[in-house]
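Below is a concrete protein record.
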Amino acid sequence: MIIYLHGFDATSPGNHEKVLQLQFIDPDVRLISYSTRHPRHDMQHLLKEVDKMQQLTDDERPLICGVGLGGFWAKRIGFLCDMRQVIFNPNLFPQENMPGKIDRPEEYVDIATKCVDNFLEKNRDRCLVLLSRQGDVLDVNRSAAFSFL
Protein backbone atom coordinates (compact mmCIF):
# COMPACT_ATOMS: atom_id res chain seq x y z
CA MET A 1 0.00 0.00 0.00
CA ILE A 2 1.17 3.51 -0.85
CA ILE A 3 -0.43 6.41 0.99
CA TYR A 4 -0.12 9.70 -0.88
CA LEU A 5 -0.27 13.12 0.79
CA HIS A 6 -0.74 16.02 -1.60
CA GLY A 7 0.97 19.41 -1.44
CA PHE A 8 -0.48 22.80 -0.60
CA ASP A 9 -1.78 23.75 -4.04
CA ALA A 10 -3.38 20.35 -4.71
CA THR A 11 -6.80 21.74 -3.88
CA SER A 12 -6.61 24.43 -6.56
CA PRO A 13 -8.93 23.78 -9.54
CA GLY A 14 -6.32 22.55 -12.04
CA ASN A 15 -4.38 20.40 -9.61
CA HIS A 16 -7.35 18.92 -7.77
CA GLU A 17 -8.37 16.75 -10.74
CA LYS A 18 -4.77 15.54 -11.21
CA VAL A 19 -4.55 14.50 -7.57
CA LEU A 20 -7.87 12.69 -7.75
CA GLN A 21 -6.60 10.70 -10.75
CA LEU A 22 -3.99 9.08 -8.50
CA GLN A 23 -6.64 6.83 -7.02
CA PHE A 24 -7.09 5.23 -10.44
CA ILE A 25 -3.41 4.43 -11.05
CA ASP A 26 -3.35 1.36 -8.87
CA PRO A 27 -5.66 0.03 -6.15
CA ASP A 28 -2.72 0.08 -3.74
CA VAL A 29 -2.36 3.88 -4.04
CA ARG A 30 -4.47 5.64 -1.41
CA LEU A 31 -4.94 9.39 -1.33
CA ILE A 32 -5.55 11.14 1.95
CA SER A 33 -6.76 14.68 1.48
CA TYR A 34 -6.43 17.29 4.19
CA SER A 35 -7.25 20.98 4.48
CA THR A 36 -3.68 22.44 4.26
CA ARG A 37 -4.98 25.39 6.27
CA HIS A 38 -5.05 24.28 9.91
CA PRO A 39 -1.87 22.42 10.94
CA ARG A 40 -2.99 20.89 14.24
CA HIS A 41 -6.29 19.70 12.80
CA ASP A 42 -4.47 18.39 9.73
CA MET A 43 -2.11 16.37 11.91
CA GLN A 44 -4.94 14.82 13.92
CA HIS A 45 -6.84 14.03 10.74
CA LEU A 46 -3.80 12.50 9.01
CA LEU A 47 -2.85 10.36 12.00
CA LYS A 48 -6.41 9.03 12.24
CA GLU A 49 -6.70 8.30 8.50
CA VAL A 50 -3.28 6.67 8.19
CA ASP A 51 -3.98 4.48 11.21
CA LYS A 52 -7.31 3.45 9.68
CA MET A 53 -5.63 2.53 6.37
CA GLN A 54 -2.93 0.55 8.15
CA GLN A 55 -5.59 -1.46 9.97
CA LEU A 56 -7.45 -2.20 6.74
CA THR A 57 -4.47 -3.53 4.77
CA ASP A 58 -2.57 -6.77 4.90
CA ASP A 59 0.58 -5.05 3.60
CA GLU A 60 3.26 -5.52 6.23
CA ARG A 61 5.43 -2.66 4.97
CA PRO A 62 3.22 0.17 3.69
CA LEU A 63 4.81 3.32 2.29
CA ILE A 64 3.78 6.92 2.80
CA CYS A 65 4.81 9.59 0.32
CA GLY A 66 4.21 13.28 0.04
CA VAL A 67 4.89 16.19 -2.26
CA GLY A 68 5.65 19.72 -1.02
CA LEU A 69 3.67 20.29 2.17
CA GLY A 70 2.62 16.63 1.95
CA GLY A 71 6.33 15.81 2.35
CA PHE A 72 6.40 17.66 5.68
CA TRP A 73 3.48 15.52 6.84
CA ALA A 74 4.69 12.24 5.33
CA LYS A 75 7.98 12.53 7.19
CA ARG A 76 6.29 13.05 10.57
CA ILE A 77 3.20 10.88 10.17
CA GLY A 78 5.30 8.10 8.65
CA PHE A 79 7.63 8.17 11.63
CA LEU A 80 4.81 8.19 14.16
CA CYS A 81 3.02 5.34 12.35
CA ASP A 82 6.22 3.32 11.79
CA MET A 83 6.12 3.55 7.99
CA ARG A 84 8.74 3.93 5.29
CA GLN A 85 8.67 7.41 3.77
CA VAL A 86 9.40 8.93 0.36
CA ILE A 87 9.09 12.69 0.01
CA PHE A 88 9.36 14.78 -3.15
CA ASN A 89 10.51 18.41 -2.93
CA PRO A 90 9.27 18.60 0.66
CA ASN A 91 8.29 21.88 2.21
CA LEU A 92 10.26 21.37 5.41
CA PHE A 93 9.85 24.94 6.63
CA PRO A 94 6.16 25.85 6.14
CA GLN A 95 6.27 28.19 9.13
CA GLU A 96 8.62 30.40 7.09
CA ASN A 97 7.22 30.22 3.59
CA MET A 98 3.47 29.89 4.14
CA PRO A 99 2.39 32.87 6.27
CA GLY A 100 -0.63 34.42 4.61
CA LYS A 101 -1.51 31.13 2.90
CA ILE A 102 -2.44 29.13 5.99
CA ASP A 103 -3.92 29.84 9.39
CA ARG A 104 -1.51 29.70 12.33
CA PRO A 105 1.79 28.85 10.57
CA GLU A 106 3.49 28.94 13.96
CA GLU A 107 1.82 25.62 14.74
CA TYR A 108 4.29 23.97 12.35
CA VAL A 109 7.14 24.96 14.68
CA ASP A 110 5.25 23.45 17.60
CA ILE A 111 4.57 20.25 15.64
CA ALA A 112 8.16 19.98 14.41
CA THR A 113 9.75 20.47 17.82
CA LYS A 114 7.34 18.88 20.27
CA CYS A 115 6.22 15.61 18.67
CA VAL A 116 9.35 13.58 19.30
CA ASP A 117 12.74 14.39 20.82
CA ASN A 118 15.61 14.03 18.32
CA PHE A 119 13.11 13.34 15.55
CA LEU A 120 15.60 13.67 12.69
CA GLU A 121 18.12 11.33 14.27
CA LYS A 122 15.48 8.73 15.12
CA ASN A 123 14.07 8.93 11.59
CA ARG A 124 17.48 8.59 9.91
CA ASP A 125 17.53 5.99 7.12
CA ARG A 126 13.72 5.65 7.09
CA CYS A 127 12.99 8.45 4.62
CA LEU A 128 14.03 8.80 0.98
CA VAL A 129 14.09 12.44 -0.12
CA LEU A 130 13.92 13.37 -3.82
CA LEU A 131 14.74 16.98 -4.69
CA SER A 132 14.66 18.99 -7.90
CA ARG A 133 17.93 20.63 -8.87
CA GLN A 134 16.24 24.02 -8.80
CA GLY A 135 13.21 25.07 -6.86
CA ASP A 136 10.82 27.90 -7.62
CA VAL A 137 9.56 28.33 -4.07
CA LEU A 138 11.72 26.18 -1.82
CA ASP A 139 15.45 26.38 -1.14
CA VAL A 140 16.47 22.89 -2.29
CA ASN A 141 19.97 23.19 -0.82
CA ARG A 142 18.55 23.95 2.60
CA SER A 143 16.06 21.12 2.25
CA ALA A 144 18.88 18.75 1.29
CA ALA A 145 21.00 19.75 4.27
CA PHE A 146 18.03 19.45 6.65
CA SER A 147 16.89 16.12 5.18
CA PHE A 148 20.18 14.38 5.77
CA LEU A 149 20.80 15.41 9.37
